[in-house]
Amino acid sequence: MINILRIDTDEADFENVLGNLLKWEAREDATIEIRAKAAIDRVRAEGDGALIALTAEYDRFEVSSMERLTVSPGQCREAYELLVNSDRKALDEAAARIKSFHEAEIDESFETEDEHGNVLGYRVTAIQHVGVYVPGGQAAYPSSVLMTVIPARIAGVREITAVVPAPMGECNRHVLAAMHVAEVDRIYTIGGAQAIAALAYGTETVKSVDKIVGPGGAFVAAAKRLVFGPVGIDAIAGPTEVLIVADGSVSAQWTALDLCAQAEHDRSAQAILISPSRAYLEAVYREIEKLMPGLERNAIIERSLEDRGAFIKCRDLEDAISLVNRFAPEHLQLAVSEPDALLPLVQHAGAIFMGAYSAEALGDYSAGPSHVLPTFGSARYASGLSVREFQKRSSIIRCSPEGAKKIGRIAATLADTEGLTAHSAAARARVEDP
């Protein structure tokens, strides 16, 4: 029997229990950041030598040079060609769908002219060199390659360097094939905090990048936090999450599968079901118990559901959505008969899956939008990975003589109030220019 937390929003201690579900980030082991910093400092000091030593220590793969930790385009092409036809076709079709979706979101440069003849606008340009971290410690994720690299290419990024851990020197063939499909420029089989350090600061072999994207484990998250500044990052990723709001109209077996699918990622993954129907919650629980023996990663699923999962009985669907907005989940499934009625009430979610057929697993692989999404409640202020993550905007300000006089007076007055007399003089010079 799986011991999944069951709570009711009407129970007296509900707020305390909910608080524990929401504050998981505070439980992160403080030693993780210390160890991540030690790895970063070592890479900065020793370069390639540190990468070789740390790969031997953490990935149990001993090499004499960085050449053994470098993957060539030819190796990726060979991996792609060795895949069975169905696997190649799935990669190609997923890549095409991801490309098609992200091509629609490109930001364009623009200019506008005000009533004084001043021309103002934005010039949109791509980041030049991006580093992509591809998880590979506990499982292989070719989908993460497609979901990160393809939006970067569409944005116009010129150089893409990917890093992926290869325990015992074994790099997954499907991951390498995805690198070929996405056209990654350089690939190194290094992982963890040391890989983040190499991307951020460079070594004799690894060229430093401008921004690092991609999900990873606790050490990767800590390292990204530590290197931010000299290099950009997309987000600090935590364990993956799904929150399902159900009214009982969707098959209990489907919902059970969706919860298990999320829980199998990692023991720290979070899968939560909210429903006003106690009978439906019980039906889903029974389906999970039936499914578990046949699932390959059932030990991980059980640990995830027992440690971080929950079945929440709510008063009604509006009560459920109020909880959604407090969780701000990475993935939200509206497993209800009329999801469009609830959508306007949702304020915070990384990705929203509408109705019975919109399984979160489809978003992980082939729907189109990137599956790299905000976690730990950061959907309150952050968005999923997109083309915009790889673009930057430069303001364009082109003042006319008359326009400079108009806005120059405003600027000079405000500068005087701040006590910045040089600012004021520079602005007034344009106002008084004969």
Write up this protein.
With 434 residues, the protein is an alpha/beta fold. The chain folds into 3 domains: 5-27 and 239-381, Rossmann fold, CATH 3.40.50; 47-233, Rossmann fold (3-Layer(aba) Sandwich); 399-432, no CATH class. It is 46% helix and 16% strand. It has 17 helices and 15 strands. It has helices at 14-22, 30-46, 48-59, 73-82, 85-103, 142-155, 173-182, 192-201, 218-227, 252-263, 278-291, 298-308, 317-327, 339-342, 360-365, 401-417, 421-432; strands at 5-8, 70-71, 110-113, 119-126, 129-133, 159-163, 186-188, 211-213, 232-233, 241-246, 270-275, 310-313, 331-335, 351-354, 391-398. A 6-stranded parallel beta sheet has the order 1-12-11-10-13-14, with helices on both faces. It has a 6-stranded mixed beta sheet with strand order 2-7-6-5-8-9, with helices on both faces. β3 and β4 (119-126) form a beta hairpin. α5 (85-103) packs across α7 (173-182) and α6 packs parallel to α7 (173-182). The model has no long low-confidence stretch (mean pLDDT 94).
The outline comes out as globular
Count of domain modules: 3
The CATH superfamily name of the largest domain is Nitrogenase molybdenum iron protein domain
Strand order of the largest sheet: 1-12-11-10-13-14
For the record, give the distance between the C-alpha atoms at the N and C termini, rounded to a whole number. Answer: 86 Å
Beta-strand content:
15-25%
Tell me, what is the CATH class of the largest domain?
Alpha Beta
Number of helices: 17
The CATH topology of the largest domain:
Rossmann fold
- CATH architecture classification name of the largest domain: 3-Layer(aba) Sandwich
Give a short account of the largest sheet.
Answer: 6 strands, parallel
